[in-house]
Amino acid sequence: MTDIPIDDRGFTVGHGLFETVLWAGGELAHWDAHVERLERGCRALGLPIPDRAGILSAAMSAIANAETPARAAVRLNWSAGSGGRGLDLPDPFAPRLSVMATAIDAVSGPVTLATARVRRNDRSPTARLKTLSYLDNVLARAEARAVGADEALMLNTAGEIACAAAANVFWIRHDVVFTPDLDCGVLDGIMRREVIAACHHLGLQVEEVYANPGRLAGAPMFITNSLVGVRAVASLDGQALLTSRWITALAKAVKSGSK
């Protein structure tokens, strides 16, 4: 277990990045894509880029220490490291890596969503990054759970559809797949990219859009992230949603492509 000093900037101001990688079938799914996104985040925040061999070794050690579960969520934290009091950047940086692996079960069945009052700040440069400061998402998820839903649907400051608390969002109309544009304050999700690629492979039109919640209006929906893959949405704000054969097709395409 890694001891985190009390002056670590990841702890004190949320200064850092994280990735959550699925361990399944004896491998780290989409590992290179996760590492590349972490590196893009480092460049955006001005953080040193971690050594690839070092973070892979740390991830495998965490999995081994967790007694190598068949399925696990492997969380990589890359913080800005220890620094002085206040907001000024440390000089030099001494970034700190911590990794943990937690056994998880495979999810099955659809998810229920509730629209949260907490908004996604699309004007913040961190909205498109997996930073260690995730409190808005925590509050949105708690709000959804308080009304009996599994997950939150988050809108941005313009009232446009953005994402779920811990997932990207898609919906389908007339055999066209829609998902919010990244400029809506959306994380460039690993599985989001996989689904868009699968749409092209299946000959499905896919559009990245700016859309208000009225565009959903009962349409089949699904969410994606690295741990659940593609998961259908059963209801939004208590309203049952239609199903679509394309959700099943995309889930199969993404799953087969991850091997």
Describe, in plain words, how this protein is organized in 3D:
With 259 residues, this protein is an alpha+beta fold. The chain has two domains: 95 residues, Aminotransferase class 4, branched-chain amino acid transferase, N-terminal domain (D-amino Acid Aminotransferase, Chain A, domain 1, 2-Layer Sandwich); 147 residues, D-amino Acid Aminotransferase, subunit A, domain 2 (D-amino Acid Aminotransferase, Chain A, domain 2, Alpha-Beta Barrel), CATH 3.20.10. Helix content is 27%, strand content 28%. The chain is built from six helices and 13 strands. Strands 5, 6, 7, 8, 9, 10, 11, 12 and 13 form a nine-stranded mixed beta sheet that branches. It is globular. 39% of the residues are buried. The mean pLDDT is 94.
Please, how many helices?
6
Structural class: alpha+beta
CATH superfamily membership of the largest domain, which one?
D-amino Acid Aminotransferase, subunit A, domain 2
Number of β-strand runs: 13
How many individual domains? 2
Question: Poorly predicted ranges (pLDDT <50, ≥5 residues)?
Answer: none
CATH class of the largest domain: Alpha Beta
Backbone CA Rg: 19 Å
The rough form would be described as globular
